[in-house]
Amino acid sequence: MIRFDYIEANKDRFREEFLNQKPFPFIAVDDFCEQEKIDALYSKIPDIQTESADYIFAKNKFEKSHFTELGQEFQELYDDLTSDRFKEWLCFVTDQDVFVDSNFYGGGIHQGKKGSFLDMHADFNYHPLKETWFRNLNLLLYLNKDWKPEYKGHLRLEHKDTGEATEVEVPFNRLAIMLCRGYTLHGYDPINFPEGKFRTSIAAYAYTLHDHQMEAARTTEWKIEAKQSPMKYFVSKLWVPMVRLKSKFSKSKTAQH
Questions:
Q1: Are 179 and 24 in contact (CB under 8 A)?
Q2: Neighbouring residues of 116: CB distance < 8 A, sequence distance ≥ 6
Q3: Residues 134, 207: contact at Cβ < 8 Å?
Q4: Where are the domains of the chain?
Q5: pLDDT band at residue 132, thresholds of 50, 70 and 90?
Q6: What is the CATH number of domain 4-256?
Q7: Which of 16, 107, 149, 203 has its CA 20 to 30 Å from the CA of residue 251?
Q8: How far apart are CA 21 and CA 159, in angstroms?
Q9: CA atoms within 13 A on the CB side of 63
Q10: From CA 1, how far away is CA 77, in angstroms rounded?
């Protein structure tokens, strides 16, 4: 499924681009998968019904972590993303010692439906079920057929400390890889896709194995301006302690999607 010969032949260029991007390291790799195979995979993506648990910080965003059951194309993509060959390429390009989570916790197919948005946020740092797995990279394979900028849904990136920001377009068969840290804010504005079309991606997350937690465990942190929405701003300030309290009594069920 993945065009390994192509991405390996260009790994030095991809590495230089990733490491020197602003506001923080990221890259967009076009034509990432073989065209015929990714077209076949796209044709089998269902209308997903499991809504994500981002509550007021997202709208009409649906997820399916266990996507290999949808057909052989999905299995082939899964096998490629979790392979040693892809791991070697990913480690070289990003200069990070990482592996892709084979359970796709919180990942898999992400589908944004009518008016969908995702507020700017920084992701959790340690895997909720694997306390020494440090979340290092986000990988987002966009599957938006015939996407146009006016459809919106660009991947927004912003450095939490410097305020420097950029946007990444999300056309079909583009893989975006971004560093994942406490300062790597990202999200997308409300979409305007044509009726019956969804903002679609397959998300994977790459981790680094630590001997012990090297920084305090952090849940997702949302960046909401008070003037944007006073109520949402208030909830964002309570979000972290609320999630910590919940975690003491129950484990996350995200991976069941």
A1: yes
A2: 58, 59, 60, 61, 153, 188, 190, 191, 198, 199
A3: yes
A4: 4-256
A5: very high
A6: 2.60.120.620
A7: 203
A8: 12
A9: 19
A10: 6
